[in-house]
């Protein structure tokens, strides 16, 4: 199915939204509070989907529980990565490594074989990630930490992608799985912050709730737009075009956040995005 120009525009908007909510979290002085508020915004989004969703199977609930655990680890690693590294470095590495690992693992999990086009994409993504791994503007120790946590974030992305692929297939209605995932995963970062920070988190949330929930609305709206695009066009084309988010993140980091190595990282992000598109695109 060809990608309609209007749908393509929506997909690019969703990609920009995904990069933007990451920029909101990265640029906040209290990233844990910002991320917790972004996540909490997923509850009304999930609740809004439930009336239109069907049932879940028992197996789907097991996959959903596993996905929530991995998502919690993912958000923890993401916060650590943004503590030590730049948006323009961390985001392309994490978002590029996730699909790369999924592609490499697909042969074992789904008995799929990579085509020559997909292997070329894998090589290009690897080159882009490799170029982003060097040349950080912080101390060597901070750069190492940023790289390690960005790669762990990418590993989490690959893990929950494979888990959710199984969960959606096991669910009686995929929309139900998506709705419940948004609802169930949302409170954990906030609960962890309350347990570890107590009243200071509550006070920070009161001060920054507008910014955090705005980021959450952008994240939820972007996800909803992506789902709409998947329903209107070829899934492979939509998935491929969404990877442009790594370019948006690099540009936001370079232009709006004033991060170093800006345009070099934008070029590296273009390599990552180009490789990911090549891996996902189907004629």
Overall, the morphology is: globular
Beta-strand portion reads under 5%
Instruction: Measure the end-to-end span.
Output: 8 Å
Number of strands: 0
Fraction in helix:
over 70%
What profile does the largest beta sheet have? none
Using the CA coordinates, give the radius of gyration: 18 Å
How would you describe this structure in keywords?
mainly alpha, 283 residues, globular, 83% helix, 13 helices, single chain
Would you kindly provide a written description of the structure presented here, covering whatever features stand out?
By secondary structure, this protein is mainly alpha-helical. The protein has one domain (5-280). It contains 13 helices and no strands. It has helices spanning 5-27, 31-40, 42-49, 58-84, 87-109, 116-132, 140-170, 174-185, 188-197, 199-232, 235-242, 245-256, 262-280. Helix 4 (58-84) runs antiparallel to helix 7, helix 5 (87-109) packs antiparallel against helix 6 and helix 12 (245-256) runs antiparallel to helix 13 (262-280). The longest helix is centred in the C-terminal third of the chain and has 34 residues, at 199-232. The N and C termini lie close together (8 Å). The model has no long low-confidence stretch (mean pLDDT 85).
A few lines on this structure:
The protein has one domain. The chain contains 13 helices and no strands.
SSE blueprint:
Layout: H1 5-27, H2 31-40, H3 42-49, H4 58-84, H5 87-109, H6 116-132, H7 140-170, H8 174-185, H9 188-197, H10 199-232, H11 235-242, H12 245-256, H13 262-280
Helix pairs in contact: 1-2, 1-10, 1-12, 2-9, 2-10, 3-8, 4-7, 4-8, 5-6, 5-7, 5-12, 5-13, 6-13, 7-8, 9-10, 10-11, 11-13, 12-13
